[in-house]
Structures are given as structure tokens and as C-alpha cells.
Amino acid sequence: MSEMLHAQNVAKSFTLHTQGSVTIPVFEGVEFMLSTGECIALTGESGSGKSTFMRMLYANYTCSQGAIKVFHDGDWLDITTASPHSILEIRKRTLGYVSQFLRVIPRVPTLDIVAEPLVALGTDRKTATDKARDLLTRLRIPERLWQLSPLTFSGGEQQRVNIARGFIADYPIMLLDEPTASLDAQNRATVLALIEEAKSRGAAIAGIFHDHETRDAVCTGSFDVTSFKVGAND
Amino acid sequence: MTQMNEPLLRVDNLTMMYGDRVGCKDVSFELRPGEVLGIVGESGSGKSTLLRSISAQQEPTKGTVEYQTRIDGVRDVYQMSEAQRRLLMRTDWAFVHQNPRDGLRMNVSAGANIGERLMAIGDRHYGNIRSNADNWLCKVEIASERLDDLPSTFSGGMQQRLQIARNLVTSPRLVFMDEPTGGLDVSVQARLLDLLRGLVHDLNLAVIIVTHDLAVARLLSHRLMVMQQGKVIEHGLTDQVLDDPQHPYTQLLVSSILQN
User: Fold this and answer.
1) What does the pLDDT look like over B59-91, one tens digit per residue?
2) From residue A187, how far is each of A135, A138, A146, A229, B173 by CA, in Å?
3) Under a CB-based contact definition with an 8 Å cutoff, are residues A165 and A213 in contact?
4) Distance from CA of B222 to the nearest CA of A (A)
5) Which position has the higher pLDDT, A40 or A107?
6) Which residue does chain A place closest to B36, by CA atoms?
7) A75/B232 Cα distance (integer angstroms)
8) Which residues of B touch A14 (CB under 8 A)?
């Protein structure tokens, strides 16, 4: 196992300027490490900041303090200070993220949306599309829907399109925000298999999982975000 | 050959004053090939002034705009001769206006609108020009049979796509867009966004896009600049600026979006 991501002494607070400039401290002194082949569950009750922490790891949220170092192309880069250009490169090639929301341009066919991350990496369109077909088949999205925009799909279907898109490129680091939340048993099993495959190719994974069974099935460890909440140890 | 990491455009301390009134003030940034920069802010915040000053349409009061030209290396666009600047604007640069009527010639055919830019750079072979124009109509999803029709017979969305074809036919490397989806209804907007995103990716275009629509900015741009009263008050990765805005005005802007 080698280290892929390291959060050091990270703090986060939100200042709400539109609401009397109140400052809401969230985390302080967070230390978090992620290595190859690991799947760490981020835990803590609802509202404790699991998704916030995950967004910080993806550089979607800024950090108020500290460093988040990512091993990218043989170098350690701190995403809290990296240029937008570097962050986009890191996301393109190193850091994958399956969010709970599908955000796409209307009208673009599902197949293209799923294949896009591979195409962006320079894979030829045919290979990328073939892999997209495989994933959509495994995730039980009926073929008759592939040429349609996923915006018309049900919540569970959209979730699976999101997962297919998130797993199509073999990212060295993967962040999964409730990947199994609205799935039935069969599809949940498929997602678990995808996670196992990613682990065995050496991906470093951090995930938020609602149910214990999923967590117990794939996770190699857990990380309780509540212990770094501001005031947690007072 | 331009390196991927070398900026295509460098704007330094750009300031445009209208008498005592600030158009835009002390704006600096770099843009690389293939990079899309969104400029957002309310009406009157200086977005369009900035765009005009960068795109050599209005000489700024202060500051420089440097561009990596294909032949002469890095040049200050306001130090070029008028002829050089016009050539740059006709070939390597493109400008997509909010109102297609400002970017098209309404009294000549669609094909002629596209062909005109080719002729301006010396193309004289009628057959080539026509087939190239036809090819571009196809890329922007306009049927070939409309090649000889006047743009005034096109719908607003089609006119906007024609304007894009006219602009991109000379293979520019830098495209300026002022509210390109502005006057279009939502379904047409989506189609145009999809088209623009595909073209940006396939042609590795650098784009500066002014918009007041944050959803458009999110889907198209890599980086975002937020302007207020002529100044850039926040500048960064698009999703970071929109999801975790730091400046009071950006927070106000983001929190004012209607939720679906």
C-alpha cells in the first residue's frame, strides 16, 4: 500500500455574508490519509459534514487552513493551493468523484455522458463507447435508453448513470458520495462489485455509505468526521 | 508551436475609464489554449466593457493585452498596426455576439456569411468555399438546403448557430462570446450549449464567455471571474466559486438562483 492522499491539519468554516456575516466553524485539525487498495468509509451522523469533507477532498470546497496533498503523476500536489488548471488536470486523471447529483447538459445522450471522462483522457471514441455500453449493461440501464438524455430518467437510473460515468476511467483515487443510496439489491451488488474491482486494481477509495451492509462489505476502515468537528473535544 | 502550458492570452492591469466613471479596473489574468473562462456579474458590472477591451474593439485607458500569435510570437494587440490587428480579428480570433444580427450580414445568404470570412483570408476557389460553408452548416446542425437562404428567414436559434459557423470557419484559436445563449428559449439554449461544448473540446478553443446565467457558466467554463462595479471580486475554479463562494457579492449572486 502506498499513500495517495493526505489531509494535514485541515480546517473549514463557512462565512455567510448574506446572513449577517455569521461564521460557522465546521472542522479543525483534520488528519486523513488514503492509500492504494483501501476503501475508507467516512462516518458520522446526518449533518455532521461527511459530504462537506468529501467536497473539500475534491477541491469543490475551499479549506480555511491546512493542506490536502494528492499524489498526481508522480508528484505531491496541494489542492488547497493548486491553480484551477492543475486541479482540473488532477480531476481528469487522478481524482474521480461520484456525487449524488447528475449535472449534465440537456439533450446529450446517456452513452456520451458516460463515455466522456475516457474521451477526455484521449481514449478513442469507439473504445470509450464500448466500455460505456459494458457499464450501462452491468448497471441494468436498458439499451433503449442509451441514446436519450438521462435527465428524463428516474432517480435510481440517474444514480446508476452517474456511477457508470464515475467508474469508466480507472482513477487512482475515487470519492464516492452515497453510491448505493437509491438502488435496489441487484444494482447495489453491482456497485459493490465495481468497488471491489477498483480496490483490486489499486484504487484508493473514500466513500460515504448509508447502510451498514454496504460498508461492512467493501470498506477496509472507517474515519469518523465528528471527531474533528469544531468543539468536539471540549 | 505553442506549448500547452504557455498562455495564449495575457491581460495585465486592464483598466477602462469613461471619463471619471469606471468601466473596468485593474483586471489581470491568463488564458491557455483550450481553456474556457466565464465572466459573470450583473448588468453594468463591466463584463462587456472588459470583453471589448480585451478583444481589440476598444482601446483601454491603461494596461496591456498580449496574444501569442501564430507567426510573430507574443504581441501586444494595441501595439500592432491596424492591418495586423484586423487580420488577427478576422482569422485567429472570433467574436460571437448576443444578437446574431450584430454578427451576421442579414442581406446575404447563409453560405455567403460563412464564405465571407474565408475570402477575407484569401480563399478564392468558389467550389472550396461553398463546400466548406456547407460542411460548417452541417456541424452547427443546419440543413444543407438552407445554404442559399437569407439568415433573416432563420429562427433565432438557427441564426445564432450560423453566427458560430461563420466565426469558426477560419479555425480561430480564441473566441469571445457575449451572452451567446441570451435571447434563446430554453430548449434551443440546451442545444447550443451542447454544440458549443463539443466544438470547444474538438477544436481545442480558448473561449472568454460573458454571461449572466450561472448555469451556462457552470456547464461551459473551467474558470470563473465574478465582476462587480468594474472589478473582479472573485476568480477561480468554476465549481468552487459557485459552490463555495467567498465574496459577499458572489454569495448573494449564487443564493439568488431559483431552484428547480
Assistant:
1) 999 999 999 998 889 999 999 999 999 999 988
2) 12, 8, 17, 34, 45
3) no
4) 8
5) A40
6) A85
7) 32
8) 244
Tell which wins on pLDDT, B189 or B82.
B82
SS3 per-residue string spanning B96-165: ECCCHHHHCCCCCCHHHHHHHHHHHCCCCCHHHHHHHHHHHHHHCCCCHHHCCCCHHHCCHHHHHHHHHH
How many CB pairs below 8 A link A and B? 53
Q: In angstroms, rounded to a whole number, what is the distance separating the alpha carbons of residues B234 and B41?
A: 10
Inspect the interface and report whether the beta carbons of A17 and B247 lie closer than 8 Å. yes
End-to-end CA distance of chain A: 35
Is CATH 3.40.50.300 what the domain over A38-51+84-228 is classified as, yes or no? yes
The pTM score is 0.91
C-alpha distance from A61 to closest chain B C-alpha (Å): 5
- Decide if A204 contacts A5 (C-beta within 8 A): yes
Q: Which of A32-41, A56-65, B192-201, B209-218 has the lowest average pLDDT?
A: B192-201
3-state secondary structure of B15: strand
Residues forming a β-bridge with A41: A207, A222
A60 and B239 in contact by Cβ < 8 A? Answer: yes
d(CA A131, CA A115): 7
Contacts of residue A15 in chain B, CB cutoff 8 Å? 246
The three three-digit cell numbers of residue A174, written as one number: 475515487
Query: In the predicted model, is pLDDT for residue A118 greater than 80?
Result: yes
Interacting residues of A169 by C-beta distance below 8 A, sequence separation 6+: A96, A117, A118, A121
- C-alpha A60/C-alpha B221 separation (Å) is 15
Task: State whether A61 and B243 contact (CB < 8 Å).
Answer: yes
Q: Which residue reads 462489505 in cell numbers?
A: A217
Phi-psi region of A42 (alpha: psi -120 to 50; beta: other; left: phi over 0): beta
CB of B219 within 8 Å of a chain A CB? The answer is yes
Domain boundaries, chain A: 38-51+84-228
Amino acid in position A140: R
